[in-house]
Amino acid sequence: MDLRALPDLFKLRIGVAIAFAALAGLAVQAGPALAPWQVAAVTVSVLVASSAAGAFNQYVERDLDARMTRTRGRPFVTGRFAPGPAWPRLIAAMVSGAFLLAAYASNLVAAAYVFLGAFVYGVVYTVWLKRRTWWNIVVGGLAGSCAVLAGAAAVSPVPSPPALALAVVLFLWTPPHFWSLAIAYREDYAAAGVPMLPVVVGEARAARAVRAGAWLLVIASLTPAALGLHWVYAAAALAGGGWFLLKCQALVARPCRDTARASFHASLVQLCGVLLGAMLDTALF
Which domains can be identified in the chain, with CATH numbers? Predict the structure, then answer.
């Protein structure tokens, strides 16, 4: 077993982003402050559950990954890890452990959101929808929303308006983010038979969908500022959102791999602005 491949297998970069979403949800939720160990435990539970879902995604999709240039270097495809029944058992143990840790550190509502986030990505998106419909990533965006709600529920089982608004932002962020990547690798998805939006409607129409989704996202990202957050958050959301919209406009003007990758990376800037802005805002005010 090549241990150096573990970060790739568990999609730790995605997991870290999801963990930050949970921290942002925790930060904007009104309620009694948690002890540092509780904050750490909830964050780790979200990271572990997300990592388990990422590994499950690669385990289930190893046949698709082998047919795509972008993913054919993944561990189950290259043989660095051999598929077998031990992997589903490990993944189930990770999700169960994450659920129990969140329940112990906070409450069952937060633990339920931790589980639901992994279930949406691992089962709803990966198993039920990805090979069947271009709506796959739209519904899959609920996984990010669950992370925000898990963090918020750790403070109070009933989410506050800013926490709900932030969960909506995470939901709306996923389609334009992932469709940008799908435009860049449209031929890969077509070869694998995966009905991502650019494969179904073409690059030009998909680019316009990315731009429309980005506008909805940026407008929604300002809602938390109207619900109690302050100028620090608003400035970060506007800066990241404006950059994303500029790159989306360039994508519509010239839909190709380069502009799609630029739009994809700009969506990450937008997400960082929203999450870090929310945490910084609540720390300062």
Answer: 1-157 (1.10.357.140), 160-285 (1.20.120)
Q: How many CB atoms lie within 10 A of CB 163?
A: 28
Residue 4 is classified by DSSP as G
pTM recorded for the entire structure: 0.96
Q: What is the pLDDT of residue 238?
A: 98
State the Cα–Cα distance between residues 187 and 182, nearest whole angstrom: 9
pLDDT, tens digit (0-9, with 9 covering 90-100), for 195-220: 999 999 999 999 999 999 999 999 99
Q: Look up tokens 């500029």; give the residue.
A: 246
Average pLDDT, the chain: 96
Dihedral sign for Cα 148, 153, 155, 160, please.
positive
81: left (phi over 0), alpha (psi -120 to 50) or beta: beta
- The secondary structure of 11-23 as a DSSP string is THHHHHHHHHHHH
Measure CA 92 to chain center: 20
Q: Which residues contact 53 (CB under 8 A, 6 or more apart)?
A: 95, 117, 118, 119, 121, 122, 126, 143
What is the distance in angstroms between the CA of the first residue and the CA of the last residue of the chain? 48
State pLDDT tens for residues 38-59.
999 999 999 999 999 999 999 9
Structure token pair of residue 214: 């980005």
Helix (H) / strand (E) element for 75: namely helix 75-78
Element (H, E) at 66: none
Backbone torsions φ then ψ of 72, nearest 5 degrees: -75, -5
Residues 243, 209: Cα–Cα separation, whole Å: 17
What three-state secondary structure class fits 32? coil
Exposed/middle/buried for residue 31 (C-beta within 10 Å: 0-12, 13-18, 19+): middle
Give me the mean pLDDT over the 89-115 stretch. Answer: 98
